[in-house]
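From the thread on structure requests for the teaching lab: each student submitted one protein with a one-line request. Submission from student K.M.:

"Model NADP-dependent oxidoreductase domain-containing protein from Aegilops tauschii subsp. strangulata, tokens only."
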Amino acid sequence: PSPPPPAAALRLGPLFWPWQKVKVGPLSVSPMGFGTWAWGNQLLWGYQESMDSELQECFNLALKNGINLFDTADSYGTGKLNGQSERLLGKFIRECQGPIKSPDDVIIATKFAAYPWRLTSGQFVNACKSSLERLQIDRLGIGQLHWSTANYAPLQERALWDGLVEMYDKGLVRAVGVSNYGPKQLLKIHSYLASRGVPLSSAQVQFSLLSMGDEQMELKTVCDSLGVRLIAYSPLGLGMLTGKYDASNLPNGPR
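Reply posted by the TA:
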């Protein structure tokens, strides 16, 4: 008789991890997401537009293997390429020949920069609309405040929180989150959003074997207690944990 097929051939789901999704607020997402910080960033990551076809192949491969959470930001991209990450992500979604049949098949989480000229909630909502235009979609999965201004512009912070409320109430985003928040500020924004009837769904923070200090662990505890999903960015330490680099072979640029 013929030998039995290998175990991998019998799997019905993605190749690399269990196919059960995890919840981020109302959303069902893959346990591993796909970050696009490097797309458009020439300074830190050495991006060149000639890389776009390879990036599209990576996007298609990720989608094929069950990843449906893609994280970006309106500030990703350097110089004239500012916003390039969102533009590329939107382009790849439109041109994808894969299994995109509903909004849940690709969930985009983007972050809005707390630029000093974004002083009102309306300006923050306009930032969301600009991201939607670059992505060429009608609604975001998660709209996130990229960083807190509490330590240097506390009045601006409240306006940005109100902006998150407005974009949620207007239906521009399905969920809201924050990035680069410490435990104390996370408790404050969670309480404020709750008072406005808006759930805080996620908190994104640098988290890896190279950045797992007391604050990260405290933030994880706070997230768990509040029912907020912690999203780890740079889990491979900006590439240092991939095994690709060592003392005699360092990455180019500021890294």
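TA comment: The CA atoms of residues 68 and 106 lie 5 Å apart. The mean pLDDT is 90.
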